[in-house]
Amino acid sequence: MFQSVSQLLSLVPGKPGIYLRASFYSLACPDTSSEISIGFLTVLSHWDTTIERGVYVGPQCNIGKCSIGENTLLGSGVHVLSGSKQHEFNDPQRLIQEQGGTFTKIRIGRDCWLGNTSVVMSDIGDHSIVAAGAVVTRETPPGCIVAGNPAKKVRSRFSEQPSGTQGENAN
Known about the structure:
By secondary structure, the protein is an alpha/beta fold. The protein has 2 helices and 15 strands. A 7-stranded mixed sheet has the order 1-4-7-10-12-14-15. Strand 14 (144-147) and strand 15 (152-156) form a beta hairpin. It starts with a helix and ends in a 15-residue tail after the last strand. Residues 161-171 have low confidence and may be disordered.
């Protein structure tokens, strides 16, 4: 039933759709804020998803079982899978769809930015950035910028010295 309502509400355009989706998910999902923005054609596939205040999820996203931290941004077409073991395939004598799997609740930290069409299968630390089109297969530490397939650290968002102390004139 949850998926049916999620799919139905994903089709409501504009501001009314954003308000309807925020209201529904804040009631249907544990600890989910009503102060969120969920874009057109975005579907949540598991009720066991938590979305904190100030989160923006762009259009055409598919969000699995996860927790999204405060003030995080997800671009268009982002897919958050429920881990990397949703489907077992070790027994070639059985159909893949009959082999079961494990759903894991993925944690996306606060103040993160996930670029368009990125795919997330593992946790992402606070203040991290995932480049457009990146595929996150391993845990991302806080403050990392990752890119590629599979996603690898490009650099850190934070320098060794506190922000604002490099190259300043002491007048």
